[in-house]
Amino acid sequence: MASTLVRGKYVITKALSRTEVEIIENGAIFQQDGRIVEIGPYEELAAKYQPDEVLGSEHDVVMPGFVNSHHHVGLTPLQLGSLDYPLELWFASRLSARKIDFYLDTLYSAFEMIESGITTVQHIHGWLPGPAGAWPDITANLLKAYEDIGMRVSYCFGVRTQNHFVYESNDEFVAKQPPSIAADMEALLKPHEVPLKDYLCFFESLWQEWEGKGSDRIRIQLAPANLHWCDDEALTQQNEYAQKYGVGMHMHLLETPYQMEYAKRRTGTTAVKHLNKMGVLGEHLP
Ligand SMILES: [Zn+2]
Q: pTM to 2 decimals?
């Protein structure tokens, strides 16, 4: 891999607080084989190294890559035909979306992210039907896209053990449907009812695989998809796995007024207080 000297009028090296950064004026970064060797004044580094290429100028700002802390897909639901509905209707509208290639879809969004200065992403995957045996190939393709393009990724697969379509059990929901569509709804929802142990096994094998590879760009984490999608057992077990494997958890919470009302009815308190009481919040789920 080539060596490069990247220069700028301002080289931002790191954040010191939420409002302050460390800046080197007329600075530069020398990288060799994808590793930063030295950061310092441009004149000094230009005299010391013979880079294959000099990027930037005395008019540019050079800064660390951005982190996209919540990401799902490449082609957006709008591009795939879903209008910008409220979340609950939006999920329904997405049922008709066409199947797409996970490798290409991930590459597509990776291009967009890199173009925007993002070099690290938290990728929350999931919303796929079971059986869990179908997931490793899909995940391997998705992670290969990040490997090929060179982005850092924290990958997690959303765990959903209940209430896949609305804020009540699939059986209760199906029982309320007119006979003309009840069977279709049941056939649609059943494959999503994957046992918790299958989700945990999937996490475990993925974690072992990527720990074994010793990748410095890809990490595997956990994702209880949302409070209404996880019963307390699923939350507790994932929390235990997070401690056991030393990984973070990423979770959706309180995205709509309906979810707030659901949390109140289920727990008698707020979603956040419930999670806190269960000991699920912490450094691994801030
Ligand atoms: Zn999300």
A: 0.91
For residue 70, the CA-to-ligand 1 centroid distance in Å is 6
Q: What is 3-62's CATH number?
A: 2.30.40.10
d(CA 255, ligand 1 centre) in Å: 9
Residue with tokens 């207080």: 273
> Residue 38 and residue 24: Cα distance in Å, rounded?
13
Domain-by-domain residue ranges, the chain?
Answer: 3-62, 66-278
> What pLDDT digit, counting tens, does each position of 62-77 carry?
999 999 999 999 999 9
CA distance 160 to 163: 8
Instruction: Give pLDDT tens digits for 157-212.
Output: 999 999 999 999 999 999 999 999 999 999 999 999 999 999 999 999 999 999 99
Q: Separation of 168 CA from ligand 1 center, angstroms?
A: 20
Span 118-149, pLDDT tens digits: 999 999 998 999 999 999 999 999 999 999 99
Tokens of 97: 């979306």
Superfamily classification of domain 66-278:
Metal-dependent hydrolases (3.20.20.140)
